[in-house]
Structure formats: C-alpha cells, structure tokens
C-alpha cells in the first residue's frame, strides 16, 4: 500500500469514527390548509426518513431536483425546522434540544438574492451578524477585513447591498456564514444564478473550506460542481435518499450505459414520451440551451439507437448528434427518473 | 449568552434598524407627515370644542399618538420585512437570544417618536400658538425616554406575535386607534365608559402620557414614571417568555420563511 493510499485509508477510518453531522430517519411533514371558503387541512411530507452521516473535514453533497427535500433537510439540521420524527446531531449536539449550542457551531449560507439587509452596506451587514454570533468586539473589524479579502469584496464594503450583483451578494453570504469561524458549514445552492466565472471563484472558496478543516454540507443542482467538490454524495428524490457514495460510485450505476446527445429545435413532450417508450432506452432528459434543446438518451452500451431516435423526432429539427460516456449528471438523471417511475 | 453580549446585540440591533428605517423613504415620509397631521386634527378638535387652555395637553397627546403609530407600524413592518428579505431565519439561526435582537429593533422604531413629539410641539407652537412652558423641565426630559422605552417594550410583546404569524400586520393595523382612545392620548378617558379605564392601566402609553403631561403642565409625574417603568419590566418579561414559545412554535409550523 503506497503512502498516499494509506493516508487515505486512515482518514476514512478516522472519518467513520467521528461523525460531525448525523441524521437518523429524519421526517418532516408540512401542515397547511387548502380552499378559499371551506378550508381543508393538507399535509405534505417533504422529507421521508432521511439518514446519513458526515465525517470530520468531509465535503458532503446533497443532490436532488426542486422540491426533493434538500432545503427542508438542511433547515432541520440548522435548527430552523423541528423534525416531525427522527433526530439529528451536529458535533454530538441534538438539533432540537441543544439548538443554541448547535447554532454557535455552524455557518449557514443559502443561494439567491435574499438573506441580506439591502439598505445597509456589506460592512454593516457583517458587523451585525458578527455581534449576533458573539465575535469579540476587538476582533470584529479584523475578522470582517479577512473575510472581505477572502471573498474579494474589500473595496466595495461601504456600498449598499441593493446595488450588488448576484455574484457579489453570494460572496457576501459566504463571508457572513464564516464570521464566527464555524467548524461546520451548510451551503444551500450557493452558486445558483451566479455567472460561470463567479461560480468558479465560489467553488474555489468552497474547496478552501475543507482544506481549512471544516466539514461542509453542500446542496447543488450542478453536477459538475458536485463532481469536482464533493467527497461523497447523496441523491435525494421525493424526500428519500435514493443513492449515496463517492462520485465514482454513483457514476458506476450507469457504467454499462451509453449516452446519445441530440441538439434539436421544437421537440415536443409527446416525442420525448415516445423516446422513453422505446425498447432499450433507460432514460431521456432534455435541457434547454438558449433556443436549442439538448436531448440526452441513455441506453445499454453497444445498442445502436441513433437512427431509431431520429425517426421518432420526426417533427423536430435535429442538428448535431453525438455519443459519449455517461457522467455524474447521467447517473443523477437515471436515479431521479427511476424514483419518479 | 452573557448580559453584556445581550446589551451589545440590543445596541447593534438598534443601530441597524435605525439605518434600515431611515433608508426607507416610505417610512421616513410617513414618520415625518403623520405627527403633523395628527397634531393638526387634534388642534382643530380642541378649537371646535372651545377649550383654548388645553393646547399643550393636546399637543403632547398628539405627539404620543405619533410615537405609538411609529412603534406599531415599525415593529410589525420590520419583522415582516425581515421575513420578506429572508433575514428572519438568519436571526433565529444565530445563537444570540431573539429577545435581544427584537428589542433593538422595536426600541429603534419608538425612538423615531422623539421626532414625533418635537415636530408636534414645533408645529403647534408656530401655527396654533401652543405655549411651550414646561413646569418640570428635568422630569419632562426624563419622562420622554421612559415613555419611549415603555412603548418600545410594548412593541416587543407585539413583535413576538409577528414572528409566529405571517399576517400579524392585520393585528397591528387594528390596534392603532383603540390604543389612542383607551390610553387617553386623543380624548380624556373620563369621557369614555367606565370599563375602558382598566384596560388602559395595562398599557404603557396611559402612564407615559400622564408622566409627560404632569411634567409639562404641573403635578407630580414620578408615580406615572414609576408605573411606566414597572410596565416596561413586565413587558420585557412577557416578551422574553413569549419569544421562547413562539420561536419554537414557528420552527414547528414553518412560519419563519415565505417559502
């Protein structure tokens, strides 16, 4: 066994022994009402018995489509929602009974435009949260300066946040989440809507968190991001974890498949359904890129389907057609589609 | 969490909320115009009633009406705004006690009321000839911040409900006029049915206005100042208990965020 492999093995053993974040059969039901005049109670089970453990210094990815239960799971872990059943611990502290202790040891960053005081400057935003997290008064200025430098906002800290771009807001979110130097960081879709260059910078900042020994739980829609950043991934669909493992483990799920990609215009849902019904087709996904649609068809390796596919896309204009090896995204699509069937 | 940390959170929360409020042109416009409008209506009412000797009495009541409106509108609006901009969840997720966070915000809204009193007196003096002779200047200067504290803490009790209920704004709109009436800000409580007065005893504006009026017009304001401070302590205790319960309920019912 080479030295690096041995180190990796020891690290794995160490991680197995020290779970920083543990979720055990977490379940969350939302209760609401429906109807304008005669209101009827409505129950939505957003998370249905999710279990996982994250080791010290690990970057763990939670992947899933919209409404799969990612944010609900994170909100239970960061003490903002009380689980309907099940339990969770962060650094050994129960997220319901020891909420105050858990809060002092975690950082929470979410994606999107919200979560900042728009009418205040970046500096005022950070100063307020530094106080809320109990950062010592004499250290606040230095800590804010360090973080502004880390996220590249040093010269813009006096400007009001309402004038910030999406990428700048996102960087400010990350700085806010790290003010108290938490050992555990939860990142809920931190690169959503950020331009490619900004997203790359954010990914490098996220990678530096685990390099600094922090444990990170990341949710994202971007498979490339999960593939490059995460040590382990859990795929969640309809409130349940449908697969988990390293990115390589998940890719192996579709290792016996091949993917045909067709660039097309005007493909209707009916045609996609017809493709899905073809013998040998495992899954069909479509992605919009500007005016164009990219249809990805997964099938068993060695099966020649291109002509059959083209015949079934009769009414659409088809451009480039190519075949490629499956990626993590294909594994994700296969898992989520299997769950939906 | 230590008391010193709690007080630092209150101070920073007050500063942040003051900046947030004063950067909101809507709030600034309402805060500037409302006291002047209230004062004008009150002066015309006094004029119509032919009681010219009660101008300062009326001006002070109108000023306090402005403080109450700013507190009610501001504390409810701030929590709604926090929820809307996604910061309410972050405040709850922080280890600092939520009661200190809310206290800073509600005290900021009632502090805006200092302007309301000043503007009302100035407006009344220039346009309606309100005499600005104050009987006990020192006690008058003490009575005003004590009253603002009382109203701010009453705002804190209300703000706790805004954390749990997304539509608590309806409640805040409902409470504006009744509180003016039962606390004697607009008309003396003695003119209203007998059952109204006991309700007012539990509301800080009743004792606050009594303290400010006796300090200005003559009499002993100290009992009213004491009553305002006692009610403030009661509100703080109630607010601290309520926020603990409501925070847990809001985590159970998922009412902290819009989504």
Describe the structure.
The complex is a heterodimer of chains A (341) and B (259). Chain A is an alpha/beta fold and 341 residues long. Chain A has helices at 3-17, 70-77, 99-105, 122-132, 137-150, 166-177, 196-211, 223-229, 247-252, 269-276, 306-312, 328-340, and strands spanning 19-34, 40-55, 59-63, 85-90, 93-94, 106-110, 184-188, 215-220, 232-237, 240-245, 257-265, 281-289, 292-300, 317-324. In chain A, helix 4 packs across helix 5. The radius of gyration of chain A is 23 Å and the shape is globular. The mean pLDDT of chain A is 86. Chain B is mainly α and 259 residues long. Chain B has eleven helices and no strands. In chain B, helix 1 (3-22) packs across helix 5 (98-111), helix 3 (55-84) runs antiparallel to helix 10 and helix 7 runs parallel beside helix 11 (222-253). Chain B is globular and about 55 Å long. Chain B starts with a helix and ends in a 6-residue tail after the last helix. The relative contact order of chain B is 0.15. The mean pLDDT of chain B is 85. The A-B interface holds A 30-31, 75, 78-82, 100, 103-104, 108, 110, 112, 114-120, 124, 127-129, 131-134, 137, 160, 176 and B 1, 5, 8-9, 12-13, 16, 19-20, 23-24, 85-87, 89-96, 101, 248, 251-254, 256-257.
Mean pLDDT across all amino acids of chain A? 86
Q: Considering DSSP H and I runs of 4 or more, what fraction of the residues of chain B is helical?
A: over 70%
Q: In this structure, how is the largest beta sheet of chain A organized?
A: 6 strands, mixed
Decide which structural class fits the backbone of chain B: mainly alpha
CATH architect. name of the largest domain in chain A: 3-Layer(aba) Sandwich
The SSE string of chain A, one letter per element, is: HEEEHEEHEHHHEHEHEEHEHEEHEH
The rounded Rg of chain A comes to 23 Å
Globally, the shape of chain B reads globular
Oligomer: heterodimer
């Amino acid at each position: 066994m080479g030295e690096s492999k041995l180190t990796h093995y020891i690290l794995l053993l160490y991680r197995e022994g020290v779970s920083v974040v543990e979720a055990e059969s977490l379940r969350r039901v939302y209760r609401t009402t429906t109807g304008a005049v005669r209101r009827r109670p409505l129950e939505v089970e957003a998370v249905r018995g999710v279990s996982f453990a994250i080791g010290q210094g690990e970057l763990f990815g939670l992947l899933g489509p919209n409404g799969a239960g990612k944010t609900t799971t994170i909100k239970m872990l960061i003490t903002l929602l009380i689980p309907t059943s099940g339990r969770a611990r962060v650094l050994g502290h129960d997220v319901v009974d020891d909420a105050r202790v858990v809060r002092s040891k975690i950082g929470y960053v979410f994606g999107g435009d919200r979560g900042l005081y728009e009418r205040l400057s970046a500096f005022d935003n950070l100063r307020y949260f530094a106080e809320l997290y109990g950062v010592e008064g004499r250290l606040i200025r230095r800590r804010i300066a360090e973080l502004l430098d880390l996220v590249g906002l040093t010269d813009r800290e006096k400007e009001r946040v309402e004038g910030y771009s999406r990428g700048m807001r996102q960087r400010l979110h990350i700085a806010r989440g790290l003010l108290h130097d938490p050992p555990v960081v939860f990142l809920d879709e931190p690169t959503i809507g950020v331009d490619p260059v900004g997203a790359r910078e954010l990914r490098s900042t996220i990678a530096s968190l685990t390099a600094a020994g922090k444990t990170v739980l990341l949710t994202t829609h971007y498979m490339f991001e999960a593939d490059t950043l995460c040590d382990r991934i859990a795929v969640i669909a309809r409130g349940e974890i449908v697969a988990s493992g390293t990115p390589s483990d998940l890719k192996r799920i579709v290792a016996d498949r091949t993917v045909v990609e067709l660039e097309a215009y005007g493909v209707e849902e009916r045609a996609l359904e017809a493709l899905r019904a073809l013998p040998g087709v495992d899954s069909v996904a479509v992605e919009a890129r500007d005016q164009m649609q990219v249809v990805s068809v997964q099938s068993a390796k060695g099966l020649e389907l291109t002509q059959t596919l083209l015949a079934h896309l009769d009414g659409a204009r088809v451009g480039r057609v190519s075949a490629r090896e499956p990626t993590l995204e294909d594994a994700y699509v296969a898992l989520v589609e299997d769950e939906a069937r | 969490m230590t008391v010193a940390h709690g007080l630092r959170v209150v101070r920073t929360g007050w500063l942040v909320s003051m900046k947030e409020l004063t950067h909101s042109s809507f709030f600034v416009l309402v805060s500037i115009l409302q006291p002047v409008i209230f004062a004008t209506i009150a002066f015309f009412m006094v004029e119509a009633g032919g009681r010219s000797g009660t101008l300062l009495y009326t001006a002070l009541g109108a000023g306090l009406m402005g403080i109450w409106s700013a507190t009610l509108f501001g504390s409810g609006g701030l929590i709604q705004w926090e929820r809307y901009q996604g910061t309410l969840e972050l405040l709850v997720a922080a280890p600092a006690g939520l009661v200190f966070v809310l206290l800073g915000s509600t005290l900021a809204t009632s502090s805006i009321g200092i302007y309301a009193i000043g503007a009302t007196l100035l407006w009344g003096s220039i346009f309606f000839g309100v005499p600005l002779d104050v009987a006990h200047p020192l006690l008058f200067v003490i009575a005003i911040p004590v009253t603002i504290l009382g109203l701010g803490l009453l705002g804190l009790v209300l703000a706790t409900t805004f954390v749990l209920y997304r539509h608590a704004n309806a409640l805040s709109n409902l409470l504006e006029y009744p509180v003016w009436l039962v606390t004697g800000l607009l008309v003396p409580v003695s003119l209203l049915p007998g059952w109204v007065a006991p309700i007012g005893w539990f509301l800080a504006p009743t004792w606050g206005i009594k303290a400010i009026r006796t300090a200005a017009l003559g009499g002993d304001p100290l009992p009213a100042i004491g009553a305002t401070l006692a009610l403030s302590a009661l509100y703080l205790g109630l607010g601290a208990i309520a926020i603990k319960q409501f925070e847990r309920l809001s985590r159970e019912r998922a009412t902290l965020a819009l989504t």
